[in-house]
Design brief:
two-stranded antiparallel ribbon
């Protein structure tokens, strides 16, 4: 088998392993999660395992001159080989990036949370299935649809370039993200330690309070009637001091929350993606910092929502001044019509009042004529 063919199979089974891992985790957790160490849709640990089985099958073929392995031998080799591969991969990733992509700490019979007996047994059984059924079918299919050697080599060069670029980009992003998280964790611990020191009463103050209480105890006992007032005064002073310290601690925590939001806004898209994709960290301090950063990232508005918001605000700022102008232009016309209508309606009343003589003073001649007509 050519090296180019072997590498192409490594990429293929890395992709199939990524599909299996994503589906398994989606079924277990109930949401889709892009599993794997790299950005691309590959899990190299699965590709390495299946490639090792391909080499084992080639060396134990009937025409290879080596003895055939029984199924229990394939099971043991697969189980032990997967355990060694898992442990070394987890150790290297945690050593360089202070993170874990899987953790068996809650599974029985685990070693440092990197490997466990149930998972190793499962991989051993999977090795038997691959050697007995899957790989023979795959080899027959590959022989039937095999590519020419130049095409195989060109495909391997192209896939190797993509894999190398993905690997370099992922390592660079994770290293910068790890350094950033360490810096943020150290700053957070320093600020919180200062806040705790400010909020707590120093030992010297406690000693001074104790000496003062001891010196004034005799005087207070001699003046029993002043004791309740002294107790109330001391309680009020303590409560005031405690409120002040709590306000200082709350202000320090609010300042750190704002700093986390500021740090989250400065992270690149690759760093945000890597931060969300890492499920476990090696220390509790990094885990707390990562969780706070994830919360800050989730609180940040997306670029699309910001653009839509800005576009909506711009349209409102253009259209909004037109309405008051239109109202102001129409208002004088309506008020003029209404005023003219009222004056028109009022004119007949005035005419009627004037013609009927209502409100006009009666003359003496008119009074005599009215009396004569009455008689």
């Amino acid at each position: 088998m050519l090296i180019s063919q072997l590498f192409n199979r490594f990429i293929l089974f890395s992709f199939l392993g990524w599909i299996y891992e994503c589906i398994y985790c989606a079924v277990r957790t109930g949401h889709w999660d892009n599993r794997g160490f790299l950005y691309g849709p590959v899990c190299p640990i699965y590709g390495c395992g299946v490639t090792a089985l391909l080499l084992l099958r080639a060396f134990t073929a009937p025409d290879s001159g080596f003895a055939l392995l029984p199924l229990w031998g394939v099971f043991l080799i697969s189980m032990l080989g997967s355990a060694v591969l898992e442990y070394l991969t987890s150790f290297v990733l945690e050593r360089h990036f202070h993170a874990r992509w899987w953790d068996y700490s809650n599974v029985p019979l685990n070693i440092h949370g990197r490997i466990c007996l149930p998972a190793s047994v499962g991989f051993g059984a999977a090795g038997v299935v691959l050697m007995r059924w899957v790989l023979p079918f795959f080899e027959r299919t590959a022989d039937a649809f095999s590519l020419p050697i130049p095409a195989e080599e060109a495909a391997s060069i192209f896939l190797a370039a993509l894999f190398a670029a993905d690997f370099a980009l992922t390592v660079d992003t994770l290293l910068s993200l790890t350094a950033r998280l360490d810096q943020i964790s150290a700053e957070f611990d320093t600020r919180m330690e200062l806040a705790v020191q400010k909020a707590s009463i120093p030992k010297q103050a406690i000693s001074a309070y104790a000496r003062e209480a001891k010196e004034s105890s005799a005087a207070l006992l001699g003046r029993a009637e002043e004791l309740p007032q002294a107790i109330r005064s001391a309680a009020e002073e303590s409560a005031t001091l405690l409120r002040g310290k709590l306000e200082e601690s709350g202000q320090a925590l609010e300042d750190m929350t704002d700093r986390f939001r500021k740090y989250a806004s400065t992270l690149s898209q690759r760093q945000q993606y890597s931060l969300r994709s890492i499920p476990f960290y090696s220390t509790e301090r990094l885990s707390r910092t990562a969780e706070r950063m994830k919360e800050a990232i989730s609180a940040l508005p997306s670029s699309r929502s910001r653009k839509e918001k800005d576009a909506g605000a711009g349209s409102q700022s253009v259209q909004q001044p037109e309405a008051p102008d239109g109202i102001r232009r129409e208002a004088p016309e309506r008020s003029g019509n209404e005023a003219s209508g009222e004056s028109c309606n009022a004119a007949p009343d005035e005419v009627r009042h004037e013609t009927s003589g209502e409100g006009r003073k009666e003359t003496p001649d008119e009074a005599h004529r009215r009396e004569d007509s009455f008689l």
